[in-house]
Design goal:
By secondary structure, the protein is mostly beta strands. Helices cover 11% and strands 56% of the residues. β1 and β2 form a beta hairpin.
Length: 91
């Protein structure tokens, strides 16, 4: 089963596969440098591992320059990590 560090790396490496409109619903731009995950559920089968996660990230907001928000935003997703190295966003 994948560990937390592997999941964070895969989310960052595959961030372009996520719908950008899912992030920062209150406005701003997601700052992926601070990205973290909470693993809510993990299920393994013969094809790979399905992981239900809560992605934690910070949204930067424009003022005179980008101002980092100290509050974390969240995004719930179900991810699949295949034994063949594949990555898929299930929900």
């Amino acid at each position: 089963m994948p560990d937390k560090e592997f999941i964070i790396k895969q989310v960052k490496d595959n961030i372009q596969k996520f719908n950008p409109f899912d992030f920062c619903s209150g406005g701003g731009w997601p700052n992926y440098k601070t990205l973290d995950v909470i693993i809510k559920r993990m299920e393994e089968n013969e094809e790979g591992t399905t992981v239900d996660v809560c992605i934690l990230y910070v949204c930067d907001h424009a003022n005179a320059c980008f101002v980092e928000n100290s509050n974390m935003d969240t995004l719930d997703k179900v991810l699949f990590f295949g034994r063949d190295g594949s990555f898929k966003i299930v929900e």
